Amino acid sequence: MAVLDSGGVTMPTENGVADLDTLRRRKSRSDSSNGLDTSPSDDAGAPADVRDRIDSAAQGTDNLAGGNGGDTENRESGGGGNGDVRFTYRPSVPAHRRTRESPLSSDAIFKQSHAGLFNLCVVVLVAVNSRLIIENLMKYGWLIRTDFWFSSSSLRDWPLFMCCLSLSVFPLAAFIVEKMVLQKLISEPVAIILHVMITLTEVLYPVYVTLRCDSAFLSGVTLMLLTCIVWLKLVSYAHTNYDIRTVANSADKVDPEVSYYVSLKSLAYFMVAPTLCYQPSYPRSPCIRKGWVARQFAKLVIFTGLMGFIIEQYINPIVRNSKHPLKGDLLYAIERVLKLSVPNLYVWLCMFYCFFHLWLNILAELLCFGDREFYKDWWNAKSVGDYWRMWNMPVHKWMVRHVYFPCLRIKIPKVPAVIIAFLVSAVFHELCIAVPCRLFNLWAFIGIMFQVPLVFITNYLQERFGSMVGNMIFWFSFCIFGQPMCVLLYYHDLMNRKGTMS
Length: 502
Known about the structure:
With 502 residues, this protein is an all-alpha fold. The chain has helices spanning 20-33, 48-60, 68-77, 115-140, 158-166, 169-182, 188-212, 217-249, 264-272, 290-320, 330-366, 384-390, 393-409, 414-437, 443-449, 451-465, 467-501, and strands at residues 2-4, 10-12. The chain has a two-stranded antiparallel sheet with strand order 1-2. The protein starts with a strand and ends with a helix.
């Protein structure tokens, strides 16, 4: 490296770094030649080019050998890199050049990465839970049993299995109706009536089979979940085709390429695709990644086993040793709910990861389904409303497409439209839980409808106090209090029903 003297002559420097003392002596001589009466240690009156050379030399020496902090300061000041140790961090070089905040101050904490703290939290979480698992196994032993999920008489669940297979009849019936409309064999009102009958029968038939058969809990839940999914798909299929016919026959249609046609292939793909909203074609991925599918399936098996372990080893003993939360001591009920909240939260997170991330992505990969936005970052939800809009995108898109905006188009105000959407969700939550348990106390229905006032309350708190308050209320109301309370209520009502029957 070379530096320029005051006359513009290039001066070579030892090891590529200018000696600060040499520059200061040259600056002092330059000041004297210009008639300036300044002290050699004071560069306030030095010419601009001399001051610039001094500052650049000072910045070039601002580097701690091998230190990350020095590297950072060196990059910030624009100084050179590999200087001789004799010229690095000279006492005459300023160590403080500008105002800066501490990393954890309120002005700087959100402007930097916290990956290290996140790793610390993960390590602490694994260590603490590993200790609790070992302590639990040493104290209580192996508590896992299978009779709650699959009873000794699980072979008697064959009617539910046959019912699952027979659900494919209803999409075929809906296709026949649409084919008859296309060929103008039936009118539009008749087609609507037939679709209503098909969808209504598709729900009532599995409910009847589940209630008549003394099946295991998991078998009943599986059948009811599949029933609800098929119902949502049938409604979307009928509603979308009706809208396509309306747009295709209208004079002022938005898309001139919209045309109504019926394809059994597109219906079959829709019934197995990871979506609830029908459309004649979907974005597709180019190929199937077999290795990726195998890795995701291995994760699915591992996390499903972890979820079952937590349920049998932790949740079931806590629930069995509890009392009805609405009867007895209030403090005892609060203690049981809080004790149940942590393992319940783990199970819920495992369920979300297994179904919405692993299973739906596996299904999408096998079917080359391109749109894989099955969820958004709901964990950052600023309100309860944000959570419901982000955590289950297939259901959210179905609700917006087939419930909320159709209500707005027939002049229903926004608030009643939101209530109607939650009402539909509450009915199906109740069906999926109450029918397998054979309990109709409406706890799930009440829990979902209770979300409506929480939506408006958290929206107000978000506007008043910021996003963090709404996020904390969401986590507390939904995962710390709401779900554990529902688990206790359903368990004790189920045990009371079994005690009454025996």
